[in-house]
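Fold it.
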Amino acid sequence: MHLFLETNHISLTKARKGHSTMENVQYTNGDYQYAFISEEAIEILRYTGNDSKLNVPESLDFLPVARIGDEALKGCSSLTNVVICEGIQHIGTRAFSGCCSLASINIPASVVSIADSAFEGCPASLVFIVHPNSAGHRWAIANHQHIDTFSSSFLYGFYNQWPERAVVEKYVGDGGNVVLPHELDGYPVVCVWERAFRGCQSLTGIVFPEGLEGIAEEAFCHCSSLTHIVLPNGLKYIGSWAFSDCKSLRRVVIPASVTSIGVDAFAGCADDLTLIVEKDSYAHHWAEEMRYPYLYPDDGD
């Protein structure tokens, strides 16, 4: 293999000496076909493999990849997850069109241009993992795509009902007592999404920001080290199983702003779980109906 690459590299070096020699010449490296776009950079013309998870390389035959060409991965129905390596700068027209199984694509900060039709025909649920304020981030927002971007310990995205506000989709930190920020990259945090903290057994506490409107299904289920939580004023709903199987959870303060609590939101919590509710609030009536012990805020312990 080393001899092949070395020999191939020598022949390419010879080709560079005359620009006309490089025109319309295609080269092959494994599952990739490529061509020169300058004397020192290449573009991927076609991917011919059938991998489900793919890292698009930053170089082929020791030559930097600058561009994913037009229709280069068109119709690659086996692809589910793609990572574009740092250094690639351009994504061409219909480069990933018709990738009908594509679930996520990671676009590096080095990418400076993406054709409008680069992902046409991909699933509506396709997740773009991008860097804050990068070209990929801006493109995904402009094209109304589903976005995840890493910011500190949180993976967040955007949804149609909250186009300018962040939804926390995944916690990737080390646990302990976590403070959920009011904003992520300038976007107000509006919701903790489904299974965002699910199974985080190292989570011992969570501080919620004012302005949070929702905690979705299973957001904190199986967080077995949580002992008490104070939900913020302004919260509107708590999803089904949101705190289920938090076996150490003994006390939850629920504000009067909550108007919806889903099925088994607190199922499997500590046997002595007590809800702190405002008198005559939705949470008060829900606790009575579901036969949860409850106290009013002024009742103390």
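The mean pLDDT is 89.
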